[in-house]
């Protein structure tokens, strides 16, 4: 810290002690906000911002975290005496994701173990790839939204088809907007509007040289990038010291969306696969939901039945918890479809419609809705214009909605002939069948 100005060093040490204590006690950002009575922005900037927080804010955080305020106030005085006034505006593109982060962390439970593993990796290794993989609706985005909410110093971008705007404006799925957003956060000297080629060179450079301070970048839903292979040449197999990149993507069966960005499982240092939620997570969600759900968390039979009906599907569980809080879900109608389910599935259908822009896409999806599972050879024979030459190009554009199953059998050579395809989630398939009028 010898080369750091006195005021900056004192502020950095003050913030480090507060963050370390928060992590030591396992206090989430939302809980810290409630304990202090301070807003999210105030707490976030106090822990990570470039400016000195008020003395009252430091006192409030010390009390909430059960820290002796004396040493903290000594550091605060040092920073204040040094006239610490460094100004750094929040990148405008990050603000785009505020609504997404809020919505995905309002009812979020059951992933504390994964969160702990990611943070332990960051502290222990400080370099490398983390990859979070799960079926659609299993909480990848919620996990990463919770991660950046608790650690606002992380750089992040959410490649969200659901937040894609029609017409002009910021598009979180566009390669140019993704790179603009990340470069703006990673490079203080970034100049907006340089164009895609320049952004690619800048981002590639940022990913291959050690950052000045330890840096964590969170990039959610790499499978939703449009086109999905746009990052192929931009990510090195090994990241430089001090840089951690947390990625997420939909599970695609025996295929990985890492293929699209030219990475493999051997390049990933921590690979997390999210499973369905257990009954303990359902209890926590019901408690968080509050309202008419109060008391249902203590009914073991109700929780067990809710888990049986949902099979632990996180998106389905969340909708049921919301219905329970509103008094719509009771012990007598657990099997009823939750209120928010149809709107969610309609959103998935709209995203599928955006991706399926070729005639071949429509035919492939139609046959899979009818049959359930088909081999690549079946699709060659059924879909006009689909050949071994264009199969990879066409299927890549809808891969995130499909699962790939690679069969092994005596005499069956590995390759395209050994692959079978089905929908990524049976709930999606059943709903899409009903919308398509298939009995």
UniProtKB/TrEMBL annotation:
| HTH cro/C1-type domain mapped to chain residues | 18-72
One Pfam family it belongs to: AAA_22
Recorded protein name is: Helix-turn-helix domain-containing protein
